[in-house]
What does this fold into?
Amino acid sequence: MNSFRTTAVARTLIGTTLVLAISGCATASPSATSGDGASEQASRSATPSESAAATPWPHCQADYGGNCLGHLPAGTYTTVQFQPPITYTVPAGGWSNFEDLPGNFLLVPPGFDLAGVDTGGSDYIGIYTSVLAANVDCTESEQPNVERTAAALAAEFAHRPGLTTTTPTPVSIGGLEGLVLDIRLADGWTQTCPYSGGNPVMPLIRGVPPSDLDHPIGPGIIVRLYLLDRSGSTLAVEVGDLSGGTHLDGYSSVVDELHFGN
It folds into this structure.
């Protein structure tokens, strides 16, 4: 894979697409309101200790899939490993869950698959327990003098060279408050990073344990980034759209139904 990271989750823009190298997917536990097939999935739900085993959970498609549910019938589900727990609802049409770790969660919308995620040809919704601003100098480090709050991160990205954003807007998602903004690489931006294969790129977010990720943004994708304050850290919901933004509102309807906590 053409990823610059070999840790749990790495999304890198190589050429005009986003390359995802994902390691880990954990089991979600369907609620009683889930659709057809949920009873079978519920009967196979793993405990957190089972989720840590090397053998992948049967619903996942790769050894880094952990105990995820894979393809989802329409319904409402609750994660097992991700903290805080996420209750989420997907409509009919072919959504999939390919990651449920303590710090990383992944949903893939209809028309896309895990292979597409791994090769940079897929839209996605990623949720991360805690993030910080990645350093603009392309090192795997934190941008100096940016607090780990939703307001500070949103202000940083709204003014960061190389990015074009919407105005950060207050938002409430699943019991958490914060800000949301749409982000794309600025037209004419030419800065590269050692991992970008000579293509323009701008570092964006990094994970704070238990979240593990290092995500830049490059040409060909729009990211709707929800930054939510939680217990002295910032939980992030990252919605990636390769269509130029035409899918964002549809994906946001799934985000709007998220609930964090028991």
Q: What stands out?
A: The domain at 128-260 is CATH 3.40.1000 (Protein Transport Mog1p; Chain A). The first strand starts at residue 9 and ends at 14.
